[in-house]
Amino acid sequence: MRIASFNINGIKARLPRLLEWLEETRPTVACLQEIKTMDEGFPAEEFEKIGYHAIWHGQKSFNGVAILADGVKPEEKQRGLPGDDSDEQSRYLEAEVNGVRICNLYLPNGNPQPGPKFDYKLAWMERLRNRIAGHLAAEIPTVVLGDFNVIPEDKDVWAVKTMQDDALMQPESRDAYARLLNDGWTDALGTLNPRGGVWTYWDYQAGAWQRDHGFRIDHLLLSPDCADRLAAAGVDKDHRGREKASDHAPVWVELRD
Question: Where is this site: Transition state stabilizer (predicted)?
Fold first, then answer.
């Protein structure tokens, strides 16, 4: 079972690249972030043409997440992250697919920091921790994946000094991510690449892609049951270099049956 995550950075602008990736790699489940469309504008019929069924949680011009499944309709379990009734941002969608709970997230960026956006990021991470702790307690096979907007360690960025003031690698952001792992989640890419040097994002500016100046912010966290089934994990890096690509590359994990 291949479960993938792709921050598409605008589903309408990247639809040809997205369909291309789906047909070339054929993940069982594909989680999308930053679809940047309202619900009524989501192109579900385009995915149905190639055999994917979708659920989505959209927002005009910003954010938005979706879950696609090959040949089966995802069974929606949660729309929006619980814990703050005033939060109207579309950043979280949860579903069941083939006996695995899929938690798809687009975690707040948090810049500029310090400030209210950074406070929102940290509060959101604590709400996430509370939500998925219940899955651990209930021993539900779960994969929590998406754009976390956190660079976990120095080995996950091409140049520490360049990003040292960014919200993505502040001690508070890293500590919140580490607390998730300490609860019992396994970082699939981090576990299989202990030396680091694996990037999932390259900025459009300053020739970052051409110079391979990237960092790792797209993560795949596995519950103990899923970690026991971990067969492989990787980054579809070549898709970042294609025409009109997203600034993220897709990431994926394979679980044994």
Answer: 149
